[in-house]
């Protein structure tokens, strides 16, 4: 997959570009609704005998348009989004810099410059996609704006239990720690990529060595608590339990940031500095302050049993 970064105004020339079937959207999460849009674009590309493409934006429009943060954490930061698109056989990923100038394009200009002029023959988006200044272009106006230069397909709403499958819903579940509910919206577990960093080195003393996962910038961290997780190291996944939190048993003053610590069952290798993937399966309980090490250790043993029972149930379901 080729990744093409564009900044407004772009200077690409239509005649020099391959004809495309392109899916449009921000696509944070690459959830099942997004996958429906993207795979529709790919199917149409195959039918037309053209290349498949996805157009996304960076940073998130709310960073530029909103009054809020200068940065928004993601379900799938750009690198992860690109990895998932490559896995699905998409040929081109266009990443358009979302800045003030770009956001001020009116809908007709957006279609002319970023669809027609990029040699898009067929454009695919979801029922609620909007484009152009104030998001005033919709899939209803697309017909008019694309005129006879480009065909388009609108993908119907994908729902789960009567609710639209959306990034917003997944973000809410992450805030609540309900990672188990996310699996059916993403079609996979929520994952975070990071690196094993040095912790406070207390874990080994209490009989539960943990891999502290750092360098997770850009990802939304689920709420604090204890989870059944898998940790991926060099492509191999190991079952374990993870605490996301502030370790109140040992810290009277709340640290600035929570730590992410994974205890892998029956594992003794040194993995400092390794790149790892945390796969979030299920929330087991909230983090608590214990009266001492003994009470904490007894609870962690219980957590391990619960996580192991969960993983065993997955195998018996299969
Ligand atoms: C499964 C699991 C559950 C944990 N639950 C708690 C908890 O509820 N409260 C707490 O203060 N610390 C909890 N911890 C964190 C331990 O205090 C921590 O692993 C220990 O202090 C070692 O930290 P270190 O690796 O930074 O040295 C938990 C750790 C694990 C692995
Ligand atoms: N559940 C869905 N069914 C069909 N199409 C969808 C669905 N969710 C998103 N899309 C489409 O996928 C593209 C990307 O959508 P977008 O990035 O706005 O995601 P979203 O999940 O709807 O996010 P948000 O929760 O922020 O509204 C758009 O074309 C959008 O219309």
UniProtKB/TrEMBL annotation:
One Pfam entry name: Flavokinase
Entry-linked InterPro entries: Cyt_trans-like, FAD_synthase, Riboflavin_kinase, Riboflavin_kinase_bac, Riboflavin_kinase_bac/euk, Riboflavin_kinase_dom_sf, Rossmann-like_a/b/a_fold
Database matches in CDD domains: FAD_synthetase_N
Reaction equations catalysed: FMN + ATP + H(+) = FAD + diphosphate; riboflavin + ATP = FMN + ADP + H(+)
Pathway assignment: Cofactor biosynthesis; FAD biosynthesis; FAD from FMN: step 1/1; Cofactor biosynthesis; FMN biosynthesis; FMN from riboflavin (ATP route): step 1/1
GO molecular function: ATP binding; FMN adenylyltransferase activity; riboflavin kinase activity
EC number, UniProt record: 2.7.1.26, 2.7.7.2
Keywords for this protein: ATP-binding, FAD, Flavoprotein, FMN, Kinase, Multifunctional enzyme, Nucleotide-binding, Nucleotidyltransferase, Transferase
Enzyme class: transferase
Biological process terms in GO annotation: FAD biosynthetic process; FMN biosynthetic process; riboflavin biosynthetic process
Similarity field: Belongs to the ribF family.
Protein name in the entry: Riboflavin biosynthesis protein
Organism classification: Bacteria, Bacillati, Bacillota, Bacilli, Bacillales
């Amino acid at each position: 997959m080729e990744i093409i970064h564009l900044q407004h105004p772009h200077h690409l020339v239509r005649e020099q570009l391959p004809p495309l079937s392109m899916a449009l959207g921000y696509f944070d999460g690459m959830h099942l609704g997004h996958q429906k849009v993207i795979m529709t674009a790919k199917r149409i590309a195959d039918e037309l005998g053209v290349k498949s493409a996805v157009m996304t934006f960076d940073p998130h429009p709310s960073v530029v348009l909103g009054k809020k943060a200068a940065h928004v954490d993601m379900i799938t930061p750009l690198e992860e989004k690109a990895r998932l698109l490559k896995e699905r056989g998409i040929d081109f990923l266009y990443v358009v810099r979302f800045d003030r100038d770009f956001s001020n394009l009116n809908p007709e200009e957006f279609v002319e410059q970023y669809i027609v002029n990029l040699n898009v023959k067929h454009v695919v988006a979801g029922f609620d996609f909007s484009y152009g200044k104030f998001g005033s272009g919709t899939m209803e106006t697309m017909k008019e704006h694309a005129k006879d230069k480009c065909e388009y397909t609108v993908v119907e709403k994908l729902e789960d239990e009567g609710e639209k499958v959306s990034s917003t819903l997944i973000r809410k579940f992450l805030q609540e720690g309900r990672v188990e509910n996310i699996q059916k919206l993403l079609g996979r577990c929520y994952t975070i990529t990071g690196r094993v960093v040095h912790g406070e080195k207390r874990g080994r003393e209490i009989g539960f060595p943990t891999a502290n996962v750092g360098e997770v910038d850009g990802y939304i961290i689920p709420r604090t608590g204890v989870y059944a997780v898998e940790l991926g190291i060099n492509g191999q996944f190991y079952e374990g339990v993870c605490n996301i939190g502030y370790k109140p048993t040992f810290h009277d003053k709340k640290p600035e940031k929570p730590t992410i610590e994974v205890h892998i069952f029956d594992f003794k290798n040194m993995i400092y500095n390794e790149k790892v993937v945390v796969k979030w399966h299920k929330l087991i309980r909230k983090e608590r302050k214990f009266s001492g090490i003994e009470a904490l250790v007894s609870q962690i043993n219980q957590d391990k049993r619960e996580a192991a029972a969960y993983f065993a149930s997955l195998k018996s379901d299969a």
